[in-house]
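Batch manifest, entry 17 of 40.
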Amino acid sequence: MQHLQKTGGGPLHFHVSTFNKNDSGADESQDALLSAGQIRHSDSTRPANISANANKTNAVHAAVRKAALLPFVFVMYAYATGGPFGLEDMVTTSGPGLTLLYHLFIPFFWCIPVSLVAAELTTAIPVEGGFYRWVRAAFGDFWGFQAGWWNWSASFLLAAAYAVLATDYLSFYFPAIVGWKHHLVSVLIIAVMAWINVRGIQMVGAVSTVLSILVLLAVAALCAIAAVKWQHNPFSPLVPPHVPPFQVFGAGLALGLWLYSGYEQVSSVAEEVENPQRNYPITLAIVVPLSMATYFLPTMFSLAALGDWQKWHTGYFSDAARLIGGPWLGLAMTIAAMITNLSLLNATVLTSTRMPSTMAEDGYLPAAFSTRHPRYGTPWIAIVVSSLIYALLAQKTMVQLLTVYVWLRIGVTILTVLASWQLRKTRPDLARPFRIPWGHAGLLYVIVAPLVMSVGAGSFMPVRTMPPLRELAPQPNVSASNTATFTPRFASVRAAESPQKPAPTTATSTLSGSSRADCAGGVVKVSSQ
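Output type: structure tokens
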């Protein structure tokens, strides 16, 4: 295990201790002096500590409860994926064939190279703040600050939206949750997640594990039942006919980047993970394939069983589950979608609140943000303040701002991969227990591939439509039997959708004339009278 500690004033030097277990189980330390170079311009007087260790007391270190490998796997899965919900618009905008191909090749040009960078830099500099401090070490204070600030401020939008969407699901089953009650429930959800996070990463990991397993069980059931009902070619057609190229390629590509983002950002809690130099690369090796399977398999099996790619829209997995497995499976998938938003919110609070705490330690924010809980060792003031901001924004719908979030996320990712290249140049002697494979070709791959994907996503379509943004007012499909089905007007914000709050579901609803509404399997059925 390696930790970094500032060894004195003047030029920036860090003391690196690497702890290994010998045959008897005792700790051996191998010391080296790491000179990380001047992080700030020479005329600066700002302290330039990479690691937060220099600012924490031994009591705080003792209080921090670290996450083991398995809970950390589900923390990363919850933050980066959470479930398949949100990709449904890709099917209609890009076509079923291209959607499935996107989920097979986008990871090799986006999340896999980013994960290799995160693995190398986490093993080299396993400190709290992760990517923010890597960027600062590579490019100095200005870009380091941008990486941290972009991440923290963008999380305001994302976490608030997760809370609103989770409440939307509840209000579907409990129609009285409208208006101020809707906002109150969103605030209560945020408060519960803040409480879980104040108690530390072990609690967050336990909650993430339970929630993620529940989602994966529902997804596995859908895949298993759909597999035995395979009737159609899920890759046909490759693209929708008579659709503008920017919609076919750009919208799907941008949504794909959104879905496969976030693996490097969990590095912000590296110091709170047991043996991060070993466990972070292992976690990435598990979570990236699991994320690919979570998106690809239910999409492929649902298309193969139903062949109705023209009907796909945000939230369609609930419809598909009901059509494939009956009302019970539709209900299970709808509940899984709600759980996904809770899981995403829980992990977002964990990773994003380490930004203000580490930036405070580095002198960019008030020192109070770095205050640690005396019992749990967590940055509790940063968690509480962030959660208050989430709560204030939880009454808003922020479609345009969520588009801005996508660009901020891409910006942070690009800075992170460029930091790996810069630190290879400026710190070639830095110990890297995990190293990006394939030598110079591998380093070129992890830098060029994400850059090309970012440029491609931006050049194929207007900013207004990245990712697909539209109000999700339910549109009835009335059959010959005068029965219409509505999909709930909410889904995971992984698709960057920010729907309006659903109108209260009452015993009666007007379609044309008097109609009766009832809920079954996660969909509202309206029968005209």
